[in-house]
Amino acid sequence: MTAVVVCALAVGGLAWLMDDSYGKRADAVDTDGFFDRLAAVLTIDRETEGSTRAGEDVGPGVISAMETAPQADQVRAADQIEAATKMANAFLNLDHEEIGANIEAVKALATGPFLNQYTKAAADLVKLVRRAQATQTGEVEWAGLVAGDDDSATVIIATNGTVANKETDFEPVARTYRLQLEVALVDGQWLTRDLQYVR
Fold this sequence. Notes:
Blueprint: H1 2-22, H2 34-42, H3 71-92, E1 94-95, H4 99-108, H5 112-132, E2 135-148, E3 152-164, E4 173-186, E5 189-197
């Protein structure tokens, strides 16, 4: 149990700091019910590839095929998801022997309030990770665009990984996280301006 507490402090401490800073903001994103709605969508039977129900009578309505989004919109959405994925990977992968480089990798992908908050918490994170001789891994399992436009987007990411330290005899313990990231276009680069843990 001690191992769980010590290992979670690195990520949990940052989560608390970010929640304290951003959780009460007037512009905070409301995610209540998001995963319930997602689960409802995922339970719908999928059609086999190449099949279509366009034109099928479904009672009071008729199924219509949707038009494909313009190529520019598809490219922009892919870039937004890629930027959020890179940040999640940088944020969750920590090694006590390379913690300085780990922190710089996160800062290189950050901007605005998130960059400021992470920079303030970085010194404490370094001490904690080195004291525990902790190593945390994280891998993005899936990512989805919640909303996006020409200069900003909100992305939800689910991750799977492990954490190990001297308290666990360096045996990995499984960890999963769901993250909500807001990315913004800054000088031609998509950077993370907010990162929160979500349920």
